[in-house]
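Intended use. Records like the one below are meant for learning the mapping from a protein sequence to its folded structure. Do not use them to infer anything beyond what is encoded.
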Amino acid sequence: GVLQAKYGISFPNQSAGSGTVASSTLDAYEEGTWTPIMNQTGANVVVNSTVGTYTRVGNLLHFSFYFYSNTPNGLSGYWRVQGLPYTNLKSGVAGGYPFINIGYSSINGNSYQFTESGRLQLNAASYLQVFTSWLTTSFTSGGLEISGSGTLLIA
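Structure written out for the chain above:
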């Protein structure tokens, strides 16, 4: 059978930390898919293949994604990953910005999987800013491919 807990699962009598009853209650669990969107200067890139999965446990969102396009947009400006399954992510934590590592990236026929480790930084509550050596490169030929996975906090 399935255990149903209308108000969450409580872990009372926690001895460590300064938690409260509310912070000791697991009140959310969800698994699903999402559609990653690559955006540059406000314009979405035409997608050929994309997949995104996520699991939410409490206020933690673990997600992974893959995006591929072979339709150049010729724009310039900063790249973003949008379409995250939650848009109320906690972007500022003690003056710093949370980020996840990029698993693989390539643009215009140049692969960066072995030459650098890029990151996707949560600068706003609803998208990830790309920080790599190609962060403002114009997509003019070949393909655009990027993947990543990580865990962020839901505000």
